[in-house]
Amino acid sequence: MSTTHKPVVRRCVSCACLKDRTRMLRLVRLASGGLGLGQGFGRSAYVCRSRRCLQDARRRKRIQKSLRMPNHPAIDATLAAELDKEQS
Q1: 87 lies in a domain?
Q2: 55 by DSSP, 3-state: which?
Q3: Is residue 2 part of a domain?
Q4: Which of 7, 43, 45, 78 could make an SS bond with 20 (beta carbons 3.0 to 4.6 A apart)?
């Protein structure tokens, strides 16, 4: 009997592409009202780590809509930091 596991896939909120969740950026709305990056329990949204998807998610406010957190400054700051990492 084989013990190979299927990869857990998630859909990018920007491009709607299915990818392995380890290759994506996970943003979580925490119960305390804050924002978590990659860990924690609660409503989450996944974005590809590509610059195009990060820019599109930031410009069209896809994360805010998915997490149901209108105008949360931490989302924009987190996406801007990830864009800076991708550029360097």
Answers
A1: no
A2: helix
A3: no
A4: 7
